[in-house]
TrEMBL record:
This is N-(5'-phosphoribosyl)anthranilate isomerase. SUPFAM superfamilies: Ribulose-phoshate binding barrel. InterPro entries: Aldolase_TIM, PRAI_dom, RibuloseP-bd_barrel, TrpF_fam. The gene is trpF. GO terms for molecular function: phosphoribosylanthranilate isomerase activity. Its EC number is 5.3.1.24.
């Protein structure tokens, strides 16, 4: 199971994530997020990474701007976390991760047909598209995902933490997980919590 550690704001946190075994690290380019970074900051942080894939998170941004940032920051994936449609996604010049809020009219079959490399399921509200730290209805979502045949492309976000990884894996058997808030202390990434989370991922892999 892959691990995406999101909301990176410092080189120290991103390097710790990579060193601990994270497969992907995420940078948020939505200005309303408390975890937002500028393209210049993300490029500087990302330049120190050698193995982990870099993901840029965008919310209804002009596609030309998305492509500009993706090129400048050498992003491996672009995550679309707003109301972007299939035509928009086809214009993105990087592999796409399309995020959906479960319970907000989520249609698993429509998600399966969306032109994206990966599908991310998250909690969220109209005001806050993601990063709420709240779980959604996992079992209900897992059934929808299985029926639509997108489990192998699925990233699960929303309230993910080291303590609930076994339950999450047993419920979804997903491609990967996406975590941010549970890695933080007082709103900032904790090196200790990053290590703790990745150790939990690795234990799960050994037991699976």
């Amino acid at each position: 199971m892959k691990a995406k550690l999101c909301g990176m704001k410092t080189r120290e946190a991103a390097e710790a994530a990579e060193a601990a075994g994270a497969d992907l690290v995420g940078f948020i380019f939505w200005a309303k997020s408390r975890r937002a970074v500028t393209p210049e900051q993300a490029a500087a942080i990302g330049a120190s990474l050698r193995r982990a894939k870099k993901v840029g998170v965008f919310v209804d941004a002009p596609v030309a701007r998305v492509n500009e940032i993706a090129a400048a920051c050498k992003l491996d994936f672009v995550q679309l976390h707003g109301h972007e449609d299939a035509d928009y996604a086809r214009q993105v010049r990087a592999p796409v991760i399309k995020a959906y809020r479960f319970g907000d009219g989520f249609d698993a079959r429509a998600a399966a047909a969306f032109p994206a490399e990966l599908i991310l399921l998250d909690s969220g509200t109209a005001a806050l598209p993601g990063g709420t730290g709240r779980r959604f209805a996992w079992r209900e979502a897992a059934e929808a995902v299985r029926t639509a045949g997108i489990r192998e492309r699925l990233l699960v976000a929303g309230g993910v933490a080291a303590e609930n990884l076994p339950e999450l894996y047993e419920t979804f058997h997903p491609y990967g997980v996406d975590v941010s808030g549970s890695l933080e202390v007082h709103g900032e990434k904790s090196i200790g919590k990053i290590k703790e989370f990745m150790q939990a991922v690795q234990r799960l892999a050994q037991e699976a």
